[in-house]
Structures are given as C-alpha cells and as structure tokens.
Design goal:
- It is elongated and about 95 Å long.
- The longest helix is centred in the C-terminal third of the chain and has 17 residues.
- The protein is built from 14 helices and 23 strands.
- The strands form 4 sheets. Strands 8, 9, 10, 11, 12, 13, 18 and 21 form an 8-stranded mixed sheet that branches. A 7-stranded mixed sheet has the order 1-2-3-4-5-7-6. Strands 14-15-16-17-19-20 form a 6-stranded mixed sheet, covered by helices on one side.
- Helix 8 packs parallel to helix 10.
- Helix 12 links the parallel strand 15 and strand 16.
- It is an alpha+beta fold.
Length: about 525
C-alpha cells in the first residue's frame, strides 16, 4: 500500500498503545532489533503500559500497529549522563518512571520496514515533543544507537563518526534521523547496551530542549507570554508651561493603559515643545535649559507608571551631568523601579548644534513582561548593539526616535526591521509628528510608528505587526507573543542566532576600567567577549 492510498482512505491513526497491540509490537521489534535484543516480553510490555500509559504511543494503519515509541519520565539528576539503558529503564520494567521528574526519556522508537517511506518516525518524534511540552518537562533525552558505525569502527573513533554524520559525509539510519529532528548530541556513551552489537556497544546521548519549560509556574506574578505594547505617535505642539506638557503626557499614559497594556513608549525628545519657551536662545543653551526639566518629568513618569500600572519608556530627554550633555531614555517600571539607557551614537547634527556626548553601556532590562532593550534612534543603525542585547536574551527592542524627513525616518525603519529579523525579536519604533516653529534644530518632524517581528511562518507575512498612519497624532497598541520567539529560535526556517559562525567572528565589548592609584597608567581597555 502506498502513501497516496493511505491518505485517501484516512487509515492512519496516532494513539496510545494498548495491551492488545502486543502481537504487532512484537513483530516489529523482532525485525528492527534483531541484533539488539529483540522484542519485549508481553509481561514487560504490560508493566510499561501500567507505569506510564501516556508515554507509550503508536501509529496504526488499517487497524494494524506499524510504528511505536516508548518513554518514561525520570528525575534525570538521579541517573546523570553515564547511565546504561538497563539502569534507566529498570531493566525494561519501567519502575524508574517518576511523574515528579523533569525529563521525558525516550526508550524505544521503531517503525515496520514496510512503512518507512511514510515518515512515521517523524510523527512519533513530534508527538513526543508535544507530550513533553504539555507535561512541562525540561527536555527529551534518549540513548541513540549508531548502527552504521560498525562499517567505520576500524578507521575512526565514535566521536569522529558522529562529526561525519553531522556534516552529512556519512549517513547513519538512526543518528541522521535524530539530528534532522532537532536533537543534539550531548555526549558519547560507552557500554550503553550489552545487546547492541551493531553499534559496537556505543551510543549517543541525545537531547531536545523544551523552550516552553517553566521551572516555577506561578498563579500570579509570573512572566507573561502575551505582552501588550503601546507606542505614542506624539504631536509636537506649543506648550506654555511644564504642567501643560505633563497633562498631555498623562493623557497618553491613561489612554494606552486603559487597554491593559504592559508598556507605553514615547518618542525621542518628546519634551522638546518646552524649548519654545526659551525665546532667542542659541540651540546649545536651549537644550541645556531643557535638561533642567528632565528630573521633574522623570519623577512624574515614575508616579504615572505606578498609578496607571504600566511600564513606561519615557522616549528620551537631555541630561546634563558633570559638564556633559547626554540623551537618555528612562524606563519607569510599574513597581517603582527606574532604569536608564544612554544614547551611544551621536549624529553629526546633534554634535554640532548641541554638543551631545555618547554614553558608555548598553544592556537588557528585566521587566514583569519580558526582557527588553532600548536603543535611541541612531543607535538602531548599528547592528552590533542589537546583537549584544540579543546575546542577553532580549525579547523586545524599543526604539524611540526623532526624524525630520522621510529619508531619515526610513533609515531608522529599515534598520529596525533588519534588527527584528537578525536578532529574532520584536522591535517597537515611535516618533513625533508636526512642527515646532522657532525651535532651532527641532522645527519639523516625520514619523510612522510601527511594530516589527521576525520573518517566518508564525509571524505576519510582511513581518509588520502594526503600523500607524504617517504624520498623524495617534497611539498604536499591539499584542506580542513571546512564546513564538522561543519556537523560532529552535525550530525556525532559519535560525540567525543559533547558526552564527562563532568560530570565525564574534561581537565584543570594550570596557574602560580604572587601575589602582599606585599604577603608572590611569586606565586601560579590556575587551570582554559577550558571546561565551
């Protein structure tokens, strides 16, 4: 019977094994394991079903079982990596099964030779993965046979053989299949099974990690999987006082929080309308006068974050400290904590008009709704920064920006989209619109706020979650599924983070540190690798 006939007649069924299936199971195992111990006895099979019925699955075709997979749950710490097959299975009795364990251990997978062109093994592996996820287990581990090794044992070590299989230079009927199903080799085991003559008594210890595993599930206060973000496309309008700006600011916090959002982000230099109050003041002086308001605005934002129960990315504001002017984005957590991200790269215009200085550090911030990064405008055009944040397991990148023209905006937008794809994260961008007459270097604005995603099947077809109407004051609210990022990073069509060639390149950060006073050199540069 060919695949087409089976599909047309709907005769393929995935289900749990029953004791009545023993004759079919015995037939398959005698063929598949002819040189590795043969079939379980009926008594052993009965004990296995009794110990963990959910873990014993099969595929039935035309009312005949043609493939099966057996497994148990174990507390893996009790066994470690140097166990034998008999030890971890309780010599086939499965009395080592422990519902309180953390690992799904695969003991057997077998497919009748007459049905191997139907990819039934992959269905069984996918079912095991689903079981592992549904039971919230840390991983699937299995001892894998390497029957093809018998042809090469006189010319290479098991380690070399495994490398050749990984590189597709050698095909192994078991290991090649397991690698294709997202398992990785944890180590080589010697004397894993006394009955596996074909593998010359060697085995691979294979592991598949459950990216959805939650070690400590919480009824309240746990990490969210669906995060709601809001972006404010801010209208630059004339204000007559600080209170006037704060009222406008609170209106948007109130509006976005009413949708139960977890984050709201304002644009870069959203407080620039205050500069209109400084008449006939040079641009460099005006921005320093604007910095005098930053502390008051930050304090108000902190108050709003708590009272409206929302995390606020306060765009960015000028900060003047130790006779240096910086551009700083504050993160006001809804629990009252405050973090700050300094803009690192200063545009030629910001340097010449205002004398802005760049900050020194970039890092990921832990929040109650995921791990986030903040890059201010121009910083997103430097891919190294986003990669450093991705190496620190960032989920969402927030980019407050200010751009005056469409081509300037498109530089930010295109780079932000690239950062989402190459770092497998979400990116939220938001800027300001409108005009500010008589405010030098901040007089015109162009913006189209947006939320970008990676580009794969689980995400929007154009990798754009949402986008605002250009040059109109509005808010943008979107839901982001962080679980999709976990799946992408291990099972995506391409895996940009996982498949980097760290053997030939890496991203490093240089940190300047003070030496002791008694040393001649005041400071030195030390390069620290971010990617261990």
């Amino acid at each position: 019977m060919n695949n087409k006939e089976i599909v047309e007649h709907h005769r393929l069924k995935l289900r749990q094994l029953r004791l009545s299936d023993y004759d079919d199971i015995q037939e398959i195992m005698k063929i598949v394991y002819a040189q590795a111990g043969g079939a379980w006895t009926k008594k052993e099979f009965k004990n296995q079903l009794k110990a963990f019925p959910e873990g014993q699955i099969c595929i039935e075709v035309d009312e005949k079982v043609v493939a099966g997979a057996l497994s148990i749950i174990v507390d893996y710490r009790k066994f470690g990596d140097n166990h034998t097959y008999d030890e971890i299975t309780g010599y086939g009795k499965f009395d080592t099964h422990d519902y309180k364990g953390d690992t799904l251990y695969g003991t057997d997978v077998f497919v009748h030779p007459e049905y191997r062109d139907m990819r039934l093994g992959r269905r069984l592996y996918d079912a095991r993965k689903e079981l592992c996820e549904n039971l919230n287990l840390r991983a699937i581990i299995a001892g894998g046979r390497i029957p093809g090794y018998k042809k090469y044992r006189d010319e290479m070590s098991p380690k070399k053989y495994i490398e050749e299989v990984k590189n597709k230079e050698i095909y192994d009927p078991v290991l090649s299949f397991q690698l294709a199903n997202d398992f990785h080799v944890r180590k080589v085991i010697t004397k894993y099974s006394d009955e596996d003559v074909a593998s010359h008594y060697y085995a691979t210890l294979l592991e598949w990690l459950n990216v959805y595993y939650d070690e400590s599930e919480k009824l309240i206060g746990g990490t969210k999987s669906i995060v709601r973000v809001g972006a404010v496309q801010w209208q630059m309008r004339r204000v007559v006082s600080l209170e006037d700006l704060l009222h406008q600011m609170e209106f948007f916090v109130d509006t976005v929080s009413s949708y139960n959002a977890d984050f709201v982000m304002f644009p870069e230099f959203f407080n620039a309308p205050l500069m209109a109050m400084f008449k006939d003041v040079p641009a460099a002086d005006a921005v320093r006068m604007l910095a005098d308001y930053t502390e008051s605005i930050k304090d108000k934002m902190q108050e709003l974050a708590i009272s409206y129960n929302i995390n606020i990315i306060a765009g960015s504001m000028p900060v003047y400290e130790e006779h240096k002017l910086y551009n700083v984005s504050y993160l006001l957590h809804r629990d009252g904590n405050v973090d700050a991200q300094y803009k690192l790269h200063i545009t030629p215009d910001e340097q010449s008009y205002w004398g802005l200085q760049g900050g020194e550090n970039v890092r990921v911030f832990n929040t109650d709704a995921g791990r986030i990064g903040i890059l201010i405008c121009y910083d997103v055009e430097f891919p190294e920064l986003s990669r450093i944040l991705a190496d620190q397991e960032m989920d969402i990148l927030f980019v407050p920006y200010w751009t005056d023209t469409k081509n300037a905006y498109l530089r930010v937008r295109r780079c932000a989209q690239a950062r989402a794809i190459e770092n497998e994260c979400y990116v939220v961008v938001s800027g300001s619109v409108g005009n500010l007459p008589r405010v030098e270097n901040m007089d015109i604005q162009y913006s189209q706020s947006a939320v970008f995603s990676p580009s794969d099947f689980s995400f929007p077809h154009d990798a754009i979650v949402a986008e605002a109407t250009p040059n109109t004051e509005t808010t943008l609210v979107s839901d982001l599924d962080l679980e999709l990022l976990k799946k992408l990073r291990t099972q995506g069509s391409v895996r940009n983070l996982q498949q980097r060639r760290k053997d030939i390149y890496d991203v490093v950060v240089k940190k300047k540190r003070k030496k002791k006073e008694d040393q001649d050199v005041e400071s030195f540069d030390e390069t620290e690798e971010i990617n261990a």
